Amino acid sequence: MVLDKRRAHLLSIIQHSTDPIPTKDLVTRTNLSQRTIYYDLDQINSWLRTQGLEPIESQHGKGLFLPPASKSKLMVSKDQSFEDWQYQLSRQEREVLIKAKILLEEQDASMQRFMDLTSMSRGTIAKEIKEIKQEFSKAGLRLYYKKGSDTG
């Protein structure tokens, strides 16, 4: 499991808060719904557990906080194992990266290169390419591709 940009940001807010932070403050700071925040917290807590860290806790009437042991272990400079943390690109970041590669590279891009670049599956990349092709078409650009010539 990996954390995407939104969840990494949410974890960072909680990690750097000196006092428990109320959920309503997180809603304001992140422009996310309370429901999305709770869903993200479940995902973050699952990730923390896979890293051998204590999950985010809730203090009734005060808010959410990260236990001190987890806070200190998440500091990159202090914890060598945290270097293995993987960042998962958001959909928007993947799209920008793929578009830039298509538009700026002189050589033909391949499905494998996009998969390596974004760490996404072939199916996800194919879906992104299809959407980018439609967007390019609306802008008067044509995106050509050949099936089966995916040499990397």
TrEMBL record:
Domain annotation Mga helix-turn-helix: ranges: 101-146
Top-rank taxon: Bacteria
Residues of the Helix-turn-helix type domain: 6-63
Residue runs in coiled coils: none
Gene3D superfamilies, alphabetized: Winged helix-like DNA-binding domain superfamily/Winged helix DNA-binding domain (1.10.10.10)
Keyword terms, alphabetized: Transcription, Transcription regulation
Name assigned to this protein: HTH domain-containing protein
Source organism of the structure: Rossellomorea aquimaris
